[in-house]
Automatic annotation (TrEMBL):
Keywords: DNA-binding, Membrane, Transcription, Transcription regulation, Transmembrane, Transmembrane helix. The keyword Transcription regulation applies. The chain crosses the membrane at residues 12-31, 38-59, 71-91, 106-125, 145-164, 185-208, 220-239. Pfam families: HTH_18 (PF12833). This is AraC family transcriptional regulator.
């Protein structure tokens, strides 16, 4: 096949193959778990693999051979209008598993559909109608045209910001709703989105400072960086897909929690309208605060590692939104931090009573409601401004 296995072509080939492998694995996991987010991610990774293909083939010498050029020119490898909405719907379906694709969502794919029609017209004109190069008379792949690359760049930046906005709202809802927020935040998604956005901005900077960087041979390091990023989301996304197959994971419970929270919060007929800008604590708020404190102290609900806002609201016989509002307004914190405050105090109390002579500090933390060492360390430092080791080394019990 005369594929030139040079350094550049070979490194991109490795990522290309891995992208296809993870695409197949995610489709398989999606079928097994009936998880739509796996299908969205599989589609995105497949297009990421195709995205680096022209440069992989170019560095391997295929674009310099006429027999290969005739085929490669007409394959729309770089789907710059299709990748952004696929990433967007992956993030939406991952953070809200009750999400279903609606007819109105097709509007996001109109640019990709139009470009597919454009590519088809070019192929029919050059290969069937004229049987000669017309659109490709200049010998350049239309996927690399400036107008298309710039439009795709703008579209990707736009959707990356949309994804970050969705994640920010998800993060807020999580901290306001569950006491095990750290376990279900999917922080890798935020890191990937920010890194991806940074990579695009670096690409723009290089283009402005060095216009020759746009030449085919000078883009290798950008495409290598892109490959590493999409490989990162492939590994992280696949690891998450495996977790979804294991029963009784916090992620599974979280699906229902967020769906219920958003649904209940939107029922204006059953919920008293609360002005969040109102800083004053009403007498009713004070009563609810005392009931909440008494409940946490007497029944020690915080020891439940899967405690949710709905559990507490049910105990208080009130609406979750009212409980969330009084915690935000009265205690100046979210639900997750509110519960972790009691857990941290419980750990300190148990250590003070020399319970750590019988159990490890981690064992005490788990008994107090924390679900992992990392969550305990983060929450403890947030409450005391010191790590557990620093705090207890200064105390003498």
């Amino acid at each position: 096949m005369h594929f030139g296995f040079g350094f550049k072509s070979s490194t991109l080939l490795i990522f290309f193959i891995h992208g296809l492998v993870f695409t197949g694995l995610l489709i398989y996991k999606g079928i097994r778990s009936e998880n739509n987010s796996s299908f969205w991610l599989a589609s995105f990774l497949f297009l990421c693999s195709l995205y680096i293909a022209p440069f992989m083939f170019g560095y391997a010498g295929w674009y310099g051979r006429q027999s290969y050029r005739d085929i490669l020119f007409y394959v729309p490898f770089q789907q710059l209008f299709l990748m952004p909405p696929l990433l967007y719907f992956y993030v939406k379906s991952l953070l809200n598993t009750n999400f279903t694709f609606q007819k109105k969502d097709w509007i996001h794919f109109i640019p990709a559909i139009l470009y597919a029609v454009y590519s088809l017209v070019i192929w029919i004109t050059d290969k069937i109608v004229l049987d000669e190069y017309y659109f490709y008379a200049d010998g350049r792949d239309k996927d690399l045209a400036l107008w298309y690359q710039v439009s795709g760049f703008i579209m990707m930046v736009f959707y990356l910001f949309k994804c970050l906005k969705i994640y920010t709202q998800y993060k807020k809802n999580t901290y306001d709703t569950v006491s095990y927020a750290d376990a279900i935040l999917y922080a890798w998604i935020q890191r990937f989105l920010i890194a991806f956005l940074g990579l695009l901005l670096i690409r723009t900077l290089f283009f402005i400072l060095n216009p020759e960087w746009a030449n085919f041979g000078n883009k290798y390091w950008y495409y290598l960086s892109f490959s590493i990023l999409f490989y990162y989301i492939a590994l992280s996304g696949y690891a998450h897909a495996i977790k979804m197959l294991i029963p009784f994971q916090p992620e599974a419970l979280n699906k229902t929690l967020h769906a219920n929270f958003l649904a209940e919060a939107s029922e204006e007929k059953t919920v008293e309208v609360i002005d969040k800008s109102e800083a004053e604590i009403t007498p009713a708020d004070e009563i609810l605060m005392k009931e909440l404190e008494a409940l946490m102290t007497s029944e020690q609900l915080f020891k439940n590692p899967s405690l949710t806002l709905f559990d507490v609201a049910q105990k208080l016989n009130t609406h979750p939104k009212k409980v969330s509002n009084v915690i935000n307004k009265g205690f100046k914190m979210n639900f997750n931090d509110f519960v972790n405050t009691y857990r941290t105090q419980e750990v300190i109390k148990k250590v003070a009573s020399n319970e750590n002579d019988l159990k490890t500090l981690l064992g005490i933390a788990l008994d107090s409601g924390f679900n992992s060492k990392s969550t305990f360390n983060r929450a403890f430092k947030k409450q005391t401004q010191q790590t557990p080791k620093e705090y207890f080394s200064k105390k003498s019990y």
